[in-house]
Amino acid sequence: MANTAPPLPYIVIDFDSTFTQVEALDELADIALRGRPEREQVVAQIKALTDGGMDGSVSFSESLRRRIELLPARREHLHLLVEHLRTKVTESIRRNQAFFQQYAARVYIVSSGFREFIEPVVAEFGIPPEQVLANTFTFDAEGRITGFDPDNPLSQDGGKIRQLRLMGLDDAPVYVLGDGITDYQIREAGLAARFYAFTENVARPAVVAQADEVVPSFDEFLYQNKLPMTLSYPKNRIRALLLENIDPTAERLFREEGYQVEVVPGGLDEEELLARIEGVSILGIRSKTQVTPRVLERANRLVAVGAFCIGTNQIDLLGCMQRGIAVFNAPFSNTRSVVELALGEIIALARRLPVKSEQMHRGVWDKSAHGAFEIRGKKLGIVGYGNIGSQLSVVAEAVGMQVLYYDIAEKLQLGNATKCRTLEELLRQADVVTLHVDGRPENTHLIGAAELALMKPGALLLNNARGHVVDIDALADALRAGHLGGASVDVFPYEPKTNDEPFASPLRGLPNVLLTPHVGGSTAEAQRNIAEFVPERIIGYVNTGNTLQSVNLPNIQLPPQQQAHRLIHIHHNVPGVLAHINNVLAAHSVNILGQYLKTNEHIGYVITDVNREYDQEVIKALRQVEQTIKFRVLY
Ligand SMILES: NC(=O)C1=CN([C@@H]2O[C@H](COP(=O)(O)OP(=O)(O)OC[C@H]3O[C@@H](n4cnc5c(N)ncnc54)[C@H](O)[C@@H]3O)[C@@H](O)[C@H]2O)C=CC1
Ligand SMILES: O=C(O)CCC(=O)C(=O)O
Fold this sequence. Notes:
By secondary structure, the chain is of the alpha/beta class. It contains 25 helices and 24 strands.
């Protein structure tokens, strides 16, 4: 049969700021001027000339001539430069070293830089000297760089065009990859079929504007051209949308991973999120944004949701699960912050600080002990003895409180805390009741008029858990009636979407009531910890399939993936799917190196590590396995 495959293109790659992250002449100046007082000034002048030459605002030959005049470099500096440049090879180029080794015959480095430093750097990628087209330095007898060979076409304006003409690459299309205007000019002159603006290191607007394609990484170039690549998928295609003022650490970590990141300061309501969710792979939220079934319906590329908080009641967890979307939260990162806030609130209410402070602001000096008490020896009733409740138990005992707790699950009793068998038992005894239950729907109005009536006269109530847990009107009535001595509330049934929206509540203006805008976890420490914890989980899941600590997918902790391709399959949990997967693998003689399966009542999660060599048809067949929700290949 005739070979109908299109010929592999010639790939013409620029060196400075494309093959390497840096401009070599700038770096050479920096090396040559080490220890000299004029270093900073001269390097800045050279950099400005480099930029001018790259974006076209200074003619190239002029830029080169003036840079070399400024450069006090010698032959020995070139060795140092080469060592330095080897550490500065662009990440995605380095990652795809195997591609270069395999296809070196199709790759040309065409650069207005200098052969003396380019050749040794690209040699490690299998690119031979004859495929490096670049300038050459001239030296004096003492080894000082004095200039460059003026007859080399690459030292002249339009040099890359002339060089390409001389090369005569006309038996296959030429694709040019570079960051500068001179790279685009090859395409403009009709000597290349496509110009790819390479933006991993620098994005020059004038160059990007001319590009046939803008590629933020070499992975993207290979992916678009269906050429073999080291990664299974270019990371720059992963879009993260981060809402609700998530700490910037998260944005940084996702960007470092190579993802595109969009940051929105406030929350988004359902309609707003619907308008933005298409194409998003990773959604980062805090407690406000509702991830509803409608949002999931529209979320055509969603792989993971990060709850940058503890609570996940704002997310349709089941819906995510049934679509194979992993949800991760930060179960412990802000625990301590809530505990400290609760302790502060207990003391503040016991000393009636909201009343005292408000009077003082009005100019009223009311020095009296009326209604104020020490917390030492008082009974603290903790409802929900999970991570926060149990930690508060330890801290409250340390300041002399007697702790009672009630939890629907059997919990380890810490210190001298006393377990209550019913909520009623706790409410009847406690001087201070603090709520730390999770936000499951069944906890709606866990504390209503009847429960408030059970509380001791003058007792205090804290809600730092979720707004719907307390019937807020009933609480306002109990406070107005003077039955409770005070309350502290951080969470509300409805919370303003942004800082610009006013806050409305029946609790406003009531005496000895502390109101805070859902800031239990809002400390620098907690936010930073969360912004590290959640991205690490999500990136781990994307890269390896590890679901350990996912709140909705079956948790599998995977061994490191070695010399294998990993097939990740999420399916509806009905009998026979695993057998079907394995039949497909057997039918294509795929060698299985390891297989891991976990199911829950809704879905099954199977990871199969296989030998790297297999027929691509197997991938198509696995996608077609009945009951498949999501399938991806990782390597
Ligand atoms: N105000 C804020 O900024 C913050 C609020 N939170 C909220 O604090 C709450 C607790 O967080 P964690 O301790 O980390 O959760 P957790 O899941 O470790 O503990 C919750 C405990 O409540 C228990 N529970 C659930 N329903 C109950 C009920 N009806 N009666 C008695 N016990 C019940 C559970 O068995 C569990 O032990 C969550 O609602 C979370 O969303 C968490 C962090 C910050
Ligand atoms: O800080 C936030 O946005 C939410 C804190 C919270 O309620 C949680 O972690 O569950």
